[in-house]
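Reading a protein record of the kind used here takes only a little practice. Think of the row as the fold of the chain written in a discrete alphabet. A record is reproduced here so that you can trace the correspondence yourselves:
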Amino acid sequence: AVVFGNPTVPSSGGSAGCWIQIIQQPVTQNSICIHSLALHLNQGTNSNPPNAFEIRVYDVNVSSNIATLKRQRDITVDVANQDEQVIKLDSCLMAYKGEYVGIANPQGAMRDVVKSGGTPSWKYWNKFEATSKVIGSTFVADNEFGPGSLGWRIDANYSTTMTTTKAPLVTTTSSRNTIQTTTRSGSSAIEA
């Protein structure tokens, strides 16, 4: 298992006013499958955050601070729930070595728990304004929080999918084409 953020999501602290948070912890595996988000909202008596949460994967150039969106997934959050909730994805959201993960809400402040300091703690890039959910869009990641913990944790597994492909071997026998492909689990023949 691979964890981004505090394994024990903080349950008390401040309330985040930012609209995006990216943990400054790069993916160190070749590929991972993000499968869930544990989230603890903390709006108190303020209005609930907009129900427009996303998990995002960025490539961040740490010298220029340009963050480029690589992949994202819309998620449904119970925005009135101020206890920890776990949002499971229907399918993998992939992230690859050197990329960064986080959460965003392009419609407003996320209102998740904010806790300065503590052990363990991280730094996070954040913004107090909307950022685009369009793949390939960029923003300048020049604002940060930390060290501390935010009210979320992204859980992932090591990916078991192959990210490289080989050209298929095509052989012609009589009037049919057989395409042979090889995967980690063995080989299969597809007749066309």
